[in-house]
Amino acid sequence: ILRGSCACNATSWTSTAAPSHLDFCYCSQCQRVSGAPFVSWMGVNRSSIVWSGNLQTFRLQISNGMNSIATRSCCSTCGGTMSMQYDCYPEKTHLSAGSVVEDVEGVMKILKAGDHIFVADKPAWYTIPEDGVERYDGFDQSFSDRQRRYE
What we know:
GO terms for molecular function: carbon-sulfur lyase activity; metal ion binding. By secondary structure, this protein is mainly beta. The chain has one domain (2-150): glutathione-dependent formaldehyde- activating enzyme (gfa) (Alpha-Beta Complex), CATH 3.90.1590. The protein has 3 helices and 12 strands.
């Protein structure tokens, strides 16, 4: 259904399942790893993804001093942001929507935006478009509840 790649094409993924949601994250970590004001993440069933190439994985300390809650991955050659795996959602992988290079069935055209998260960390110079999508200063309540149960 979908295929994605980093900028240098050394690392790629294929998904046989459509994404369940699309979120826009403005947290400081997403800004720093991407060099952009936010990263667009799409949730995909982990079992539907096949990786090719060499991923580098890493964990970042959360800015409020909490332990890391996710493993991020990037291309080990060019450093392109590829995915995030939340500890409390082992069945889902969040793929960088910007890495999509082939959309065989047009699923990205019908995928609806989910949430803008961590808008409190948004750079002052960036204005989020008025798109009618929910906005949260951190995670939405359902994610926060799931994270608390996981801990």
